[in-house]
Structure formats: structure tokens, C-alpha cells
Amino acid sequence: MVLLPILAFIIICLFFLEKYSLKNAFKGVDYDIRPSGTLFEADEEFSLITTITNTKRLPLEFLRTGELMPDGIALPGEDFEIESGDRGMAFVSDTYLMPRQKLTRTLKATLPKRGLYYFMGATLTVGSFLGLSGKKKELHLMREVVVPPKPVEVKKLNNLLGKYIGDISVYMFLLEDPILTLGFRDYTEHDPMRSICWKQTARLGKLMVKNFDHTLDLTATVILNLDSKKVDGLETVFSMARTVCEFLEGMEISYRFVTNASVARTMGRSVIYDGFGGDHLASILELLGRATYTNFESLQNMLAKIVKGAEPGRSHILLTPEITDTASLLLHRLRVRTGREALVLTPETLKDETEMSQAV
Predict the structure, then answer these.
(1) Which candidate, 263, 173, 182, places its Cα nearest to that of 218?
(2) Angle of helix 325-338 relative to helix 299-309, nearest 10 degrees?
(3) Are 198 and 327 found together in one domain?
(4) Radius of gyration in angstroms for the set of CA atoms belonging to the chain, rounded to a whole number
């Protein structure tokens, strides 16, 4: 008879512990996931560091974690149960945590193609003290990984760019553009008569010639257009844009990047100003990775703005799914304003080795 009160007391205690454990199931329990960076190439392996923390004095005897992963992700060497739900694809794993324990896990991951990928948290399920029931909670995060387009592996594109830049360099040298005048020096017998500055000659009383800097870096603007009814070639245009930028980087040419593409989560940023180098290229690659298939303004409006602000001597390279008559007219105005032809590149440019895009 003495055992009955004791048994009843134990049952009551277990009942309250069960209720308490459910009520405070997620108190002191936290989850986080962080990629090892924000910009990765397609199929490049990177790390995902996940942490689950239990700061309570009681153990978590059962914890199910459904980690929300973007579509297309691969986790080589990992064996997860995969569930699909309203929030997307979840990689499910079970574990337990001792009091005041942090569990850190590093996963290797790859992403397949250009785009912006989100890691949006997890769904946690904690078992009760007796394991008779459980409680579920959704943890919302927003971690981003950007995958830029792959470069175009076509020799013809590099040949076109090399010829275009080479022609511009020769043009600068032959015309001795006065914009590049550094100063004046004494005339020598090897100087052409057309280089004599008669104003300086009259002022100083001896023949003086203009001193040009033929090694001054070229400047260029890379224009990416998505205002087109052709959608099949958009990924090719993205890849061509990357290849053009990398070509200019290799030539150490300062360049600007302009696009009318709608770019996800960048506050509408569509221009990256003049520069070159690793950070400059990384900013453009991230923009290309975030770019969507929609455009926020027409090609005509974008080109009109570029023509209005174009400086004499600047080169322009337009990447577009197609070229229209209206765009051709604006490119003609751009040539008149800058004194240089623009290079127009479309996916069709790469199909025929004998065909070259010409500026209008």
C-alpha cells in the first residue's frame, strides 16, 4: 500500500516534466547555417557550416532537423532523407544533444548553374521528455550564394575582341588623338610635320611638337541588354558578358558595366563604374549571377542614356540577344559622339566563323 502513493507521485512528476518539456521545447535551442562564401562557380565545391545549440540544463533526447536547401544542390558523400514541403526541399537528420552542448557540422556542397540560391533555415522537431510526443518549429534565415555564368569557351569571341581592341589601338596611334597630348617637346628630324604645334612654335620661337602618350589605357563600356523577345539565348548572352569582362581584365583595360536586367536583391543596381582588377570583376560576376530574365527598361532608353553621357574616345561593347533598327540608329549616334565604332555581339555571332558583328 505504501508503494501506491510513491508510484502516484512519480507519475505526477513525470506528467509535469512531460508538460514542461513540451512547453519549453525550444527554449535555449538554436540553429544556424553559413556558407563558406557568397560567390562560387558552377559545380565548385564549397562548405556549409551548420550549428545546433542546446543551452538548457536538460538534454534533447530527440531532435529532428529539416534543413531547407535550394533546388539543384548536391551534398557529395552525405546520406540524408529528403522531404518536400511548402518551404521547399528539406534534408532531414536526427540527433540528440546533451545539456549546454553545441553540435557543429561541415557539409560539402555544389550548385549546378548560374543563379541566386537561398538557404532559408530549418524546421526543428523536438521530442518530449518521455518521447511520447513532439513539437515543431520553423526557423527562418536568409543566407545567399551566387553562382555566376560560365565563360564562353569559343575562340571566335576572343578573336573578335582582340581584333576590335587592336583596331582601336591602331586608330589611336595613327590619328594621335589630341586628348592624349601630355605636353610639348623640341622638333626632331624624325617627327612628322603634322605633329608640329604652330602655336607653341610661334610663342617659343623654335619648332615644337605635341608629345603624345600612345600607351594610355583604353576605356570601355560593356553593355548587357535583356530587352528582347528571344529568351533561348539569354544564358549565352550572360556567359558572353563574363568572357568580355575577363578579356578586358586580361588586357588591363579600365571598363564600365551597364545593364537593363532586373537584378535580385541589389536595390536596383545596374551600373558598375570604371575600374579593373579582382574586386571589380567579382562585383560584375555577382551581378551576372543575380540577374533575372526580365528587364526594367528598354534597350532604346538605356542606349539613349549611354549616348548622352558618352565621352569621346570611349569604346563600347554591346551584348544582346538581337539587334533592332532603333538600336542601330542609337549606335550610329554613339559612334558620332565617341569617334569609335561599337562592337555588337549576339549569340548568332558565335555560330559562323566568317561572320562578325559590326558597329553601325
Answers:
(1) 173
(2) 10
(3) no
(4) 32
302: burial class by Cβ within 10 Å (0-12, 13-18, 19+)?
buried
Amino acid at 331: L
Is residue 234 within 8 Å of residue 321, measured between CB atoms? yes
What average pLDDT does the structure give for the chain? 83
162 and 115 assigned to the same domain = no
CATH, residue 53: 2.60.40.10
Domain of 70 in residue numbering reads as 28-147
Residue (of 273, 300, 272) closest to 286 by Cα position: 272
**Whether 50 and 110 share a structural domain:** yes
Identify whether 4 is part of a domain. no
Q: Give the lowest-confidence range in 92-101, 132-141, 281-290, 321-330.
A: 132-141
Q: Measured between alpha carbons, how far is 23 from 2 in angstroms, rounded to an integer?
A: 32
The string of pLDDT tens digits covering residues 48-91 is: 999 999 998 888 888 999 999 999 999 998 888 888 877 778 99
- Does any domain span residue 355? no
- Residues 249, 217: contact at Cβ < 8 Å? no
Helix, strand, coil % in the chain, rounded to nearest 5: 30, 35, 35
How does pLDDT run across 239-248, given as a tens digit for each residue? 999 999 999 9
Angstrom distances, CA of residue 215 to CA of 134, 256, 343: 72, 20, 22
